[in-house]
Write a structure and sequence with these properties.
Length: 333
């Protein structure tokens, strides 16, 4: 009896503390873009809209058979912004998407009237976000089809209850995709980010690209210059050159910063497109507490990049399937 009364007294105190801490952290997070955007000179090397096409790298080799190349800018791109906020995203039943566009099993599509200049694999680290995945696929398939890409969507789901390891899932996605298809351009994509502008072409650039320059939840301002999270496009050779992502980041945060430092270490740079084009909206979800040891990991990462990554990747594929709208891997890691 005594124990019970102690416990009931403690609960409100703890909740209050947690509330105070998380509110102040939230406040800080919201204030950062404002402070940096307004009062310091943080300029980003954006690629202007008109220069985007010349930054894209084809990587598909020669024409196959009798077809001609698709035009450098797809005639199906639409100038109007489709998504204004995250209430705009309607789920389209998969049968309709398949029938309307002729998407192949495993979430593959390519133009039939011409040969696409760009072949890409879109890899999504995933667990427990069914609704987001449906919204993502409803939006992304038509979006990629309008861009006349030769693409495949791959979902790598983490098996079991250990903490989410986004970076390792992406390494696994990279390796498993290459067992299925010869592709030189990878887009690593969070399931809750949706591009709003058709001219944000989902092909690789000569340099690795951070794909969002403006997101609604960051009030369309980047919190810091070297942010390399959420959605990136990178060539296969560059990904190999940096030994992929670290496998050591369990829980939220840091893995993208570590990846950025890998890029820097190989004397590569990153680019971004004009924020008017590289705009995203983020699907709502409860905030996850950042992992406590991410700074420690990032520090360690400085010396372990050559042997932590693709080179020591170990995992088990528990299951895999070609679903209508995506290729699915269930991975224990
Ligand atoms: C984390 C990153 C994250 C970024 C933006 C940073 O503090 O380390 O992993 O992408 O915040 O949310
Ligand atoms: Mn998110």
């Amino acid at each position: 009896m005594k124990k019970v009364s102690v416990a009931t007294k403690e609960v409100p105190v703890n909740l209050f503390k947690i509330w105070i801490i998380s509110s102040s952290l939230n406040l800080l997070l919201w204030a950062l873009p404002f402070i940096f955007g307004k009062y310091t000179d943080v300029t980003f090397p954006y690629i202007a809209g008109n220069d985007i096409v010349q930054e894209l790298v084809s990587l598909v080799g020669t024409l196959q058979g009798d077809v001609h190349w698709c035009p450098p800018i797809s005639p199906y791109l639409e100038n109007s912004i489709r998504l204004h906020d995250n209430s705009d995203i309607k789920i389209v039943p998969k049968e309709i998407l398949v029938l309307k566009f002729g998407i192949q099993n495993g979430g593959m599509w390519k133009p039939s009237v011409c040969q696409s200049r760009y072949k890409v694999a879109v890899v999504i680290p995933y667990r427990n976000r069914t609704h987001h995945l449906k919204q993502f696929l409803s939006h992304l398939h038509p979006f990629l089809i309008r861009q006349q890409l030769d693409y495949r969507i791959i979902v790598v789901e983490q098996y079991g209850n250990s903490e989410f390891n986004r970076a390792k899932l992406l390494n696994i996605g990279f390796v498993e995709t290459l067992k299925l298809v010869d592709v030189d351009c990878f887009i690593f994509h969070d399931v809750d980010l949706l591009p709003v502008n058709d001219f944000n072409i989902y092909a690789c650039t000569y340099l690795p690209r951070h794909m969002y320059s403006a997101v609604d939840t960051f009030r369309y301002q980047l919190p810091y210059r070297n942010l390399f999270g959420g959605t990136i496009a990178i060539q296969r050779i560059h990904f190999r050159a940096v030994n992929g992502f670290s496998n050591q980041f369990y829980g939220w945060g840091g893995e993208d910063d570590d990846f950025y430092s890998r890029i820097e270490r190989k004397s590569l740079r990153i680019i971004r497109f004009d924020p008017k084009i590289a705009t995203y909206i983020m699907l709502p979800h409860p905030k996850v507490l950042p992992s406590e040891d991410r700074f420690h990991r990032m520090n360690e990462g400085k010396t372990s990049q050559d042997y932590d990554g693709l080179s020591d990747l170990s995992y088990e594929i528990i299951d895999k399937k070609l679903y209508q709208l995506y290729t699915w891997f269930l991975a224990a890691c």
